[in-house]
Amino acid sequence: MSEARYQTHLTISWDRLHRDVRTLCHRLLEAHEEPFKGIVAITRGGLIPAALVARELNIRLIDTVCIKSYDHMDQGGLDVLKGVDHDGQGWLLIDDLVDTGNTARAVRDMLPNALFTTVYAKPEGKALVDLSVVDVEQATWIQFPWDMALSYIEPLAAQRGSSESS
Ligand SMILES: O=P(O)(O)OC[C@H]1O[C@H](OP(=O)(O)OP(=O)(O)O)[C@H](O)[C@@H]1O
Ligand code: HPA
Ligand SMILES: [Mg+2]
């Protein structure tokens, strides 16, 4: 599957991401009194939310499941590079988003007893996670801040001038 299935973009700034992760942390603290044994971050996208959650929930033990599914917008087969040696009981599992749910399904099988959270969730995968913060439409591509850079843009009047002269 590729780019063609995405019709719109949702651009997430660092500020927005930080706010959405803090909302996730509030919900975790409200629902779970027992401290987590640690965090399992799903690389690479889960690493940044995992660091922010670790700070808010005062968690020092962080492990990873290393898995790759997409090459930019092109979805390929799942490539699991590293797992963990437990079933997730008492652990918090974190990814940036769930889209088709392919990654979530594979990681669920590896850690069936972890509490699985993502910051963003699309409908096809949402039921696979225990907790997510922001619902995003299936046909929307989420642009994360680590995949973007600030760049110069022409003033509107100059853009109009160039379109009128062409
Ligand atoms: O629900 P799915 O359709 O499986 O898509 C979601 C997964 O895809 C992305 O990871 P990706 O494989 O692009 O690797 P990355 O985290 O290293 O960017 C994202 O970080 C999720 O892990
Ligand atoms: O919408 C998305 N944005 C970034 N990475 C992704 N990997 C799967 N879906 C997405
Ligand atoms: Mg990922």
TrEMBL record:
<keyword id="KW-0472">Membrane</keyword>
<dbReference type="Pfam" id="PF00156">
    <property type="entry name" value="Pribosyltran"/>
</dbReference>
<feature type="binding site">
    <location>
        <begin position="99"/>
        <end position="103"/>
    </location>
    <ligand>
        <name>GMP</name>
    </ligand>
</feature>
<comment type="function">
    <text>Purine salvage pathway enzyme that catalyzes the transfer of the ribosyl-5-phosphate group from 5-phospho-alpha-D-ribose 1-diphosphate (PRPP) to the N9 position of the 6-oxopurines guanine and xanthine to form the corresponding ribonucleotides GMP (guanosine 5'-monophosphate) and XMP (xanthosine 5'-monophosphate), with the release of PPi. To a lesser extent, also acts on hypoxanthine.</text>
</comment>
<protein>
    <recommendedName>
        <fullName>Xanthine-guanine phosphoribosyltransferase</fullName>
        <ecNumber>2.4.2.22</ecNumber>
    </recommendedName>
</protein>
<keyword id="KW-0328">Glycosyltransferase</keyword>
<comment type="pathway">
    <text>Purine metabolism; XMP biosynthesis via salvage pathway; XMP from xanthine: step 1/1.</text>
</comment>
<feature type="binding site">
    <location>
        <begin position="44"/>
        <end position="45"/>
    </location>
    <ligand>
        <name>5-phospho-alpha-D-ribose 1-diphosphate</name>
    </ligand>
</feature>
<feature type="binding site">
    <location>
        <position position="142"/>
    </location>
    <ligand>
        <name>guanine</name>
    </ligand>
</feature>
<dbReference type="InterPro" id="IPR023747">
    <property type="entry name" value="Xanthine_Guanine_PRibTrfase"/>
</dbReference>
<feature type="binding site">
    <location>
        <position position="99"/>
    </location>
    <ligand>
        <name>xanthine</name>
    </ligand>
</feature>
<keyword id="KW-0460">Magnesium</keyword>
<feature type="binding site">
    <location>
        <position position="99"/>
    </location>
    <ligand>
        <name>guanine</name>
    </ligand>
</feature>
<keyword id="KW-0479">Metal-binding</keyword>
<dbReference type="InterPro" id="IPR029057">
    <property type="entry name" value="PRTase-like"/>
</dbReference>
<keyword id="KW-0660">Purine salvage</keyword>
<dbReference type="InterPro" id="IPR000836">
    <property type="entry name" value="PRTase_dom"/>
</dbReference>
<feature type="binding site">
    <location>
        <begin position="141"/>
        <end position="142"/>
    </location>
    <ligand>
        <name>GMP</name>
    </ligand>
</feature>
<comment type="subunit">
    <text>Homotetramer.</text>
</comment>
<feature type="binding site">
    <location>
        <position position="142"/>
    </location>
    <ligand>
        <name>xanthine</name>
    </ligand>
</feature>
<feature type="domain" description="Phosphoribosyltransferase">
    <location>
        <begin position="13"/>
        <end position="151"/>
    </location>
</feature>
<feature type="binding site">
    <location>
        <position position="96"/>
    </location>
    <ligand>
        <name>Mg(2+)</name>
    </ligand>
</feature>
<keyword id="KW-1003">Cell membrane</keyword>
<feature type="binding site">
    <location>
        <begin position="95"/>
        <end position="103"/>
    </location>
    <ligand>
        <name>5-phospho-alpha-D-ribose 1-diphosphate</name>
    </ligand>
</feature>
<keyword id="KW-0808">Transferase</keyword>
<comment type="pathway">
    <text>Purine metabolism; GMP biosynthesis via salvage pathway; GMP from guanine: step 1/1.</text>
</comment>
<comment type="similarity">
    <text>Belongs to the purine/pyrimidine phosphoribosyltransferase family. XGPT subfamily.</text>
</comment>
<dbReference type="GO" id="GO:0000310">
    <property type="term" value="F:xanthine phosphoribosyltransferase activity"/>
</dbReference>
